């Protein structure tokens, strides 16, 4: 191909016939601006992860060197190893999974059924109950965390224990602290972490479903439960996936209830706070191959390593589930 023909082909590609130079320049500017915007937003979102990873690879010499900001000169895995050992990562990961997975299942069951009731049924006090639900989304956890602690430390089985006490002379109660029972009960009864938000999301999605779907099911002889399981649930899968992802993330990072109800084995979200305490209390002792002074100089690097290890399973989960999550977000209409 001659140089003239190649130049003509290139010119036709960027300046097609019938399109003015002004319009072509405007299109090119839009592409450049859109690309710069997406790259900027992507950098802002990835900045914490990049910073944690680069800080985790810094050595003691890099911590002394003020010129090292992003790329360490002598990368090492010492900080990651110390963070891994002090997090008791394997044990804490199993505790986190023991907390997250059952709570996810129980929370989905309670949220979906409650949302279906608010979306499709009419009963006395419905608006009042829905208002209380919205109010629960606003009230901070700190306002009712003490009554929760008192209730689970002397759990009377929702008043049944007090009734038994009328006949036996002693109240039937149990201490549910230092176990997963408080988390499971709250998730199953629709009062778990962010349950109010999940019920609201699912209820809004169900309201937008055509009522004709249920009418057709009723004509075919389906009852309320059959309609719910065979008609409603298959159509709210995108919203359920969205709620499931949110639930996993919030339970994975939950530390207030975990630090209050548990006193033995802690999940990763609580263990990461103990790493900082151990470093501050190190003094002249040794942790791994580092003495107390070096540990304190390397504190930022070790804490970055600990935080990176905590979120690493979530990153891996998102890599494999991002397509389903993106599709569900688009179909539910959630943004931000």
Task: Describe it.
The chain is built from 17 helices and no strands. It has helices at 3-14, 21-56, 60-64, 78-87, 89-120, 126-138, 145-153, 160-168, 181-188, 195-207, 211-219, 224-235, 237-253, 256-261, 268-280, 292-297, 299-332. With 336 residues, the protein is mostly helical. The protein is flat, with a radius of gyration of 28 Å. The model has no long low-confidence stretch (mean pLDDT 82).
Short summary of the structure?
The chain is mainly α and 336 residues long.
Which structural category fits the helices and strands?
mainly alpha
Shape: flat
The number of helices is 17
Main sheet?
A: none
Radius of gyration: 28 Å
Distance between the termini: 50 Å
Give the H and E element order: HHHHHHHHHHHHHHHHH
Task: Tell how many strands the DSSP assignment holds.
Answer: 0
């Amino acid at each position: 191909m001659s140089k003239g023909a190649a130049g003509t082909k290139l010119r036709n590609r960027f300046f097609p016939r019938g399109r003015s130079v002004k319009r072509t320049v405007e299109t090119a500017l839009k592409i450049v601006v859109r690309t710069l915007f997406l790259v900027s937003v992507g950098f802002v979102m990835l900045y914490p992860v990049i910073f944690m990873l680069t800080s985790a690879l810094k050595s003691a010499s890099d911590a002394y060197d003020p010129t090292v900001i992003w790329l360490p000169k002598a990368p090492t895995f010492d900080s990651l190893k110390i963070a891994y050992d002090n997090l008791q990562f394997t044990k804490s990961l199993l505790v986190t999974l023991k907390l997250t997975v059952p709570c996810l299942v129980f929370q989905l069951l309670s949220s979906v059924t409650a949302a279906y009731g608010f979306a499709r049924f009419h009963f006395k006090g419905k608006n009042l109950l829905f208002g209380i639900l919205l109010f629960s989304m606003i009230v901070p956890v700190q306002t009712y965390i003490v009554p929760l602690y008192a209730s689970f430390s002397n759990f009377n089985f929702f008043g049944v224990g007090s009734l038994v006490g009328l006949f036996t002379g002693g109240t039937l109660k149990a201490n549910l602290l230092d176990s997963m029972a408080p988390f499971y009960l709250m998730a199953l009864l629709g009062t778990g972490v962010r349950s109010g938000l999940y019920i609201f999301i699912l209820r809004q999605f169900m309201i937008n479903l055509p009522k004709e779907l249920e009418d057709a099911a009723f004509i075919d002889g389906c009852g309320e439960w059959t309609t719910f399981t065979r008609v409603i649930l298959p159509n709210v899968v995108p919203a359920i996936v969205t709620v499931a992802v949110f639930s996993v993330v919030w339970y994975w990072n939950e530390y207030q209830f975990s630090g209050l109800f548990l006193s033995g084995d802690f999940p990763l979200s609580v263990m990461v706070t103990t790493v900082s305490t151990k470093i501050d209390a190190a003094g002249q002792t040794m942790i791994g191959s580092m003495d107390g002074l070096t540990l304190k100089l390397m504190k930022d690097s070790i804490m970055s390593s600990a935080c990176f290890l905590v979120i690493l399973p979530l990153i891996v989960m998102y890599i494999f589930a991002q397509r389903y999550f993106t599709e569900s977000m688009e179909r539910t209409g959630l943004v931000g």
